[in-house]
Write a structure and sequence with these properties.
Layout: H1 18-21, H2 25-39, E1 43-48, H3 53-58, E2 61-63, H4 65-74, E3 79-83, H5 86-95, E4 101-103, H6 119-129, E5 138-143, H7 148-156, E6 160-162, H8 167-176, E7 180-184, H9 187-196, E8 204-207, H10 219-224, E9 227-230, H11 242-251, E10 255-259, H12 265-270, E11 273-274, H13 277-286, E12 292-296, H14 299-308, E13 313-316, H15 333-344, H16 356-372
Helix pairs in contact: 2-15, 4-5, 7-16
The protein binds iron/sulfur cluster.
Length: about 375
């Protein structure tokens, strides 16, 4: 197994019973396997691409958040252990109609970006915005990386969910209806998508929910804008800067720079390709042997790609300064051991459930995404 990343720390054991805190790798691997043997087909482990190698290796299926939620829905397993973050487990519960035990090993695995658009803030913003914009002329589009109550709000307001690979199609759907878009919660994905569709800096405004007055903007600017971008971002992708791209090009003559569209616009512009997690994986899969590819995304995905493509030179776009995701890091194997051993005893720990009302409205917004996009 690759050396453990410096930035990777099993630091948050608040919920974990004491006997599980000091488990060593060998012992927990054996215990996880023993529990899985006992649980058999009743239990499916889903591992997000940003998970640590040890979690990746015991996962039945790996992938990005939406792929994993669809896999949950397609499986017959009674217990779905979602090794990702809480909004992903919620999406799995929505897509499985609340009929399975969707379990997250640690409840501390909460995505900071999803937490930047709390429903109380969004409701207030919607009220303020629709005082100056006719509600029939604006539609919310919400990134998959959001909590279920916001997905449900999006469904109620006739909006749609998007992923980083379907954002262009979903934006076009709203624009063709001549609607203004309120995009939540990732300003960079919104900015990159609008820009790719031919819009310019004077076509959008930022809505800062922490600003005491009208989101830090003006009614006139909101009236004029085509896009209102929520002031939220992913701490991992926001860290990349154009200097990282320049330095990489100086270091390697023939390097392809590939980044995630959650990165700032100037980074995307300086790069050769921007794509979602699954598009980045495909890009690397399709690259010829011997290629040099510098990737700007969460560091564990880059590590997985390095292991899987030894014939290619895959490097981290910002070297050792590249971040792992704090939230994903909370799913440590000791937590996984705990929830699996409790399942063997018949105890379901950390089941993630979404209320029926939120589930039904979220489903409306998710289904709209599937109808419109890929
Ligand atoms: Fe959230 Fe960013 Fe972590 Fe993904 S990588 S879970 S968007 S903080």
């Amino acid at each position: 197994m690759a050396e453990t990343l410096n930035l990777f720390r099993y630091a948050h054991f608040a919920q974990l019973p004491e006997p599980y805190r000091g488990l060593e790798a060998n012992e927990r691997t054996e215990r996880i396997q023993r529990a899985l043997d006992r649980l058999g087909d009743s239990t499916l482990i889903l591992g997000h691409n940003y998970q640590h190698e040890e979690i990746y290796e015991v996962s039945d299926i790996t992938g990005d958040s939406f792929k994993l939620s669809k896999e949950a829905a397609a499986s017959d397993a009674e217990n779905i252990i979602f090794c990702g973050v809480t909004f992903m487990a919620e999406t799995a519960d929505i897509l499985t109609n609340g009929e399975r035990n969707v379990i997250i090993p640690s409840r501390e695995a909460a995505c900071p970006m999803a937490g930047m658009a709390e429903m109380v803030q969004v409701s207030q913003a919607w009220d303020e915005i629709t005082r100056v914009v006719d509600p029939d002329e604006i539609v919310p589009i919400t990134y998959m990386n959001s909590y279920a109550d916001l997905k449900a709000f999006t469904g109620r307001m006739d909006g749609a969910i998007c992923t980083s690979s379907s954002s262009h199609e979903i934006f076009e759907w709203a624009l063709e209806q001549d609607k203004k878009i309120l995009f939540l919660p990732d300003k960079h994905l919104g900015h990159n998508t609008a820009h790719d569709l031919g819009y310019h800096d004077d076509d959008w405004v930022l809505w800062n929910a922490w600003h005491p007055e009208f989101g830090g903007t003006t009614p006139e600017a909101v009236e004029d804008a085509r896009f209102i971008l929520w002031e939220g971002m992913c701490q991992v992708h926001d860290r990349f800067a154009p200097e990282h791209v320049d330095q990489m090009r100086e270091k390697h003559d023939d390097v392809d720079i590939v980044v995630h569209p959650e990165c700032p616009r100037d980074v995307v512009e300086a790069s050769d390709y921007a794509g979602s997690t699954s598009q980045i994986i495909d890009y690397v899969d399709d690259a010829p042997s011997g290629s040099t590819i510098a990737i700007g995304t969460e560091v564990h995905l880059i590590r997985h790609l390095q292991r899987e493509h030894e014939d290619k030179h895959i490097v981290q776009l910002c070297g050792e300064a590249c971040l792992d995701c704090n939230a994903m890091r909370q799913i440590d194997p000791n937590y996984l051991t705990w929830v699996l051993e409790e399942l063997v005893k018949g105890n379901v720990i950390n089941r993630v459930t979404v209320s029926k009302e939120d589930r039904d409205w979220s489903k409306v917004a998710l289904d709209r995404m599937l109808e419109i996009g890929s």
